[in-house]
Specification:
The chain is of the alpha/beta class. It contains eight helices and eight strands; from the N terminus they run E-H-E-H-H-H-E-H-E-H-E-E-E-H-E-H. The protein binds BIS(adenosine)-5'-pentaphosphate.
Length: 217
Amino acid sequence: MTEVIMILVLVGPPGAGKGTQAKLLCARFSIPQISTGDMLREAKRAGTLEKRYLDIMDSGGLLPDEAVIGLIDRRTAEPDCSNGFLLDGFPRTVPQANALDAHLAQGSLGIDAVIQLDVPRPLLEERLIHRRTDKRSGQIYHLVYNPPPPGAELEHRADDRPEAVGKRLDAYEAMTAALLPFYEQKKLLRRVDGVGTPEEVTQRVMSALGRPGSGGE
Ligand code: AP5
């Protein structure tokens, strides 16, 4: 029997719900979530992230392409990626997208779909400023919509401060000017409305992938 390999890419502005959706979708497809942001924050916690990169991240800028491309090449070669994976926050630039295509082509693989989550900017700002993450489980919470349980060890990301949030949203707008047409031209882009409950958004993503209702409630 031929194994089905599912390779998905989630794109969307900071706060669009990529991390939230990635966890829900990965559970449905039984594939790992690969988030460059999470990998970089892990390196930051471990003290292995170069200071110049740490400063860029905390201020809301994008790291140079070469700092993230190698991370993805290595991570996707790990055994748990043999049935596919979901990329969250990578690629963010056309050079990163080209590097990914070249890397996948080495294994005769390609992307199945690029899902873009659309959320209006004022709501993004509101989501980011109220986001908290449980340090131990990685679970993402929102102080109003999805409040953390008592006892959660909460972290407020340095780049969720209002001054960094504006810079990240601007960087996303500049970046997508080139990245989205790149995937649109390849007919891989699926635009999904990211406003609604996380479960509603997941259902829309499943429909966009041609699997309405599969595994859903
Ligand atoms: P990264 O970690 O990728 O951050 P990001 O793209 O800014 O995205 P976020 O994690 O902020 O938001 P999200 O879309 O995952 O939203 P979430 O689900 O948490 O990158 C961080 C930094 O690393 C970058 O700025 C850059 O410096 C560097 N970096 C990473 N990758 C890079 C790359 N490829 N190249 C260069 N540099 C790179 O949700 C947000 C909030 O909203 C939460 O509180 C959540 O509970 C809430 N929420 C989510 N969905 C809903 C919903 N449907 N309804 C109500 N609330 C919701």
